[in-house]
Amino acid sequence: MRWILTILAAAALTVFQIAFLSWMPAPFSLLSFAVIGISISVAAERPLEGALWAFVAGVLLDMHGLYGFGTRTALLFLVFAVQRVLFSRVLTNASKSALFLLTLAGVAAEFVGLMAIDGMRVVFGGTPYLLSFEPDIFYRLIGSALANGLAVVLCLYAVNAFRRRFESVFIPHR
Amino acid sequence: MTPATRSRLVIVTGAAAVLLFFLHLLGATANAEAWILRGLSRPETKLSEAARSFRDAVGAPFKVNETRKENEVLRIERDRLMTEVALLREIEAENGELRSVLNYVKQAEKAPILAHVLASSPEAGTHTILLDKGSDDGVRMDVPIIAGDGIVIGKIFKLEKTTSLALLLTDSRSRLGVSIQNAAKTQGIAQGKRGLSLEMRLIPQNEEIIAGNLVVTSGIEPLVPRGLVVGTVRDVETEERNPFKTATLLTPVSYDDLTLVAIPAP
Question: What is the value of ipTM here, to two decimals?
């Protein structure tokens, strides 16, 4: 049941990101629900949900994106893998700061992956979509990492507050 | 769910992604992708519209300064365009005037002298214009001044070597022999009225005149040719005991907007 909800949530939020948030000014346009979803799943030790996030969001992003089909899916699986390794080997707990760092690493991994693909396009005579020597690109990376990291932390705060307030209402016999 | 099962499912998900990629390369998923995109197109359009409206509504207060600057730029542009429009209208009017004068010049036997209006009479109640042509250019005293397509507007009143002063028909001191183009060819004198209007006087009471009759020069004056248009009759004033009646004339050109006039050559 949970994985169906994950698929639906990933699909709905990715469509919302593509159709709504992309029109908003920064930092809202920099939010990536896929990275956020994968981060939370990895930190909650639910790898299947993380993989589903990468799969569903990646396919939808690929269907709407500039890059070839499979690119964003592959990158989101890369994010998932990096975060899994980081969470199991480097970070020692699932605190908010750990989750924040996990998200930063995820955004950085996705960014590096995109730059690498752009670089390959240039090597093979194509035109890059994002890659440039302007400092703006790094500001964008930093902005995106901070926006997504803070969004994850805010999300956790909201979920915890919701639980504290409504747990007794919805689960009275616990 | 055991960790091993979870790992297997993760691998299955990854494998599904790889399989989908290859199916896409083979074109096997084209219909499914098209179906999904078609299904998503409507909610995405709605979301995009909502996003733009929301962004515009929320962003409006932050754009006040930008709007103000843009408004200022547009205001300057508007002022510049207004000046340009005024200038173009001026040129258009001048062009029309030049065309009509040119018509007269073409019709005249001898090429008339063209003179620019330098100034208008500064004294209230008088109606004169200063022209940039004088006796050195062949201008003589009492010759008529022509505006437009052969319309008499006055006579040379004062002559200098390089300039001349023309007394317009509406000036109180102005007198011009005219006739009405009616059956009787009624003759009279066109006389100005305080620089404001033009009247035809000394019209015998028994003459039949109606509004709209054309008034032309009678040719009674040696330097003023016959048949030049002066104006039309606007209304006729008849007084008992007075052997003559008076007609108020309507001039076809505005005497205040003159820039170029023609003076018949000697």
Answer: 0.79
